[in-house]
Amino acid sequence: MRTVVFEAVGKLALVERPEPEIGPKDVLVKAAAVGMCGTDIHVFDGEFEGTIYPLVPGHEATGEVVKVGEAVKGLAPGDHVAVNPSTTCGECEYCLNGQANLCSAWNGLGVVASDGACQELFAAPATNAYKLKPETDLFQAALIEPLGCAIRGYDLLPRRMGQHYLIYGSGTMGLIMAQLAPRAGAVSVTIVDTNPERLKTARELGFDLAFESADDAPATGWDIVIDCTGTIAAIEDGLKRVKAGGTFQNFGVAPAEAFADYSPFRIYRGEVTINGSMAVHNSFGRAVDMFEAGALNPGPMISNSFTLEDYSKALDMFRSGQGRKLQIRPNDTESKVFVS
Ligand SMILES: [Zn+2]
Ligand SMILES: [Zn+2]
Q: What distance in Å separates the CA atoms of residue 168 and residue 252, rounded to the nearest whole number?
């Protein structure tokens, strides 16, 4: 079985491995599509706290169940699933307080200590595998994992009718946050990205208020500002543009050692709320439901798919900032371009 492995920091290999063994409560999944995101780059570069190498990458995955452990209920070979990569200890202070995404031993398949989905077959706890309708596009459904993160973000926002949203970043996360905004009460959604190529996708998805700088937007203040870039310049810019009474959300992943400047007086005088949102939290099942209900328009969002052999090409393309959502399709025999 062909497997992509991060053997050590910055060291990539394609190796032959035996089929993964599964425990009584696990399922074995034939991988269909695996989204690539900034987290994979952080893991490859050794910038994600806690990663243990060697590790098979891939945490935004879908596939078809081929085998179930003897204690598994509700799933059978042939079922299509989307897999929540997060696993938690169930025993720490946070898990016991219903805050499992903050678990001190938080583990993500393909991110920390368990192998991910960039292999022909991958194992996952059955409770992490969510059954999809047979008619759901199994490749596009790899957007369910980032959608689950976005829903967690919205759980932490005020969600009032008639609010004006400003979103930094027109990549996958920014575009998902933007598509959910009207459902949360947004009356307008402005998207900012310094890369004009990425703004094209926003416009294709119907967001006409798409600019290289918030200075170019007709509005001057926003109720909700969401950073989906993790870039300090964007965060500092966004914090200045929140209206009094508004909320700023750190959704994007900034480097762990980075700091941003803001005016504490403005936060005080304007009663501005700043919050953070970390991964999926009780939101994966809702992401499946919303995806299947058509909450996203996935067509314009996915630009390329790569075979396991071409994994390094996907990494290079991601780093160059080209393309839209890039996917690995571990059982495909050729890489494909959907949007160029
Ligand atoms: Zn991701
Ligand atoms: Zn825990």
A: 9
C-alpha of residue 59 to centroid of ligand 2, in Å: 19
Give the model confidence (pLDDT) of 140-150 as tens digits: 999 999 999 99
pLDDT tens per residue, range 273-306: 999 999 999 999 999 999 999 999 999 999 999 9
- Cα-to-centroid distance, 101 and ligand 2 (Å): 8
Active site residues: 39, 42
Ligand 2 centre distance from Cα of residue 98 (Å): 10
Number of helical (H) and strand (E) elements in the chain, helices listed first? 9, 18
CA 221, CA 240: separation in Å to the nearest integer? 9
161 C-alpha vs ligand 1 centroid, how far in Å? 29
Angle at 231 between CA 229 and CA 233, to 5 degrees: 125
**Is residue 225 pLDDT above 90, yes or no?**
yes
CA of 59 from ligand 1 middle (Å) equals 6
- The H or E element spanning position 198 is helix 196-204
Counting ligands in written order, which one lies closest to the CA of residue 327? 1
Q: Which ligand is nearest to the CA of 58?
A: 1
| Measured distance CA(280)–CA(93) in Å, rounded | 18
Q: Walk me through the domains of the chain, giving residue ranges and CATH numbers.
A: 2-148+281-337 (3.90.180.10), 157-276 (3.40.50.720)
What ligand is nearest to the CA atom of residue 90? 2
CB-CB contact of 172 with 300 (8 Å) = no
**What tokens appear for 287 in the block?**
């992401």
Q: Which residues of 78-105 are buried (b: 16+ CB within 10 A; e: fewer)?
A: ebbbbbbbbbbeeebebbeeeebbbbee
The pTM (predicted TM-score) of the whole model is 0.96
What percentage of the chain has pLDDT greater than the value 90?
95
- What are residue 87's DSSP bridge partners? 107
The predicted-structure confidence for 10-52, as pLDDT tens digits, reads as follows 999 999 999 999 999 999 999 999 999 999 999 999 988 889 9
**pLDDT score at 186:** 98
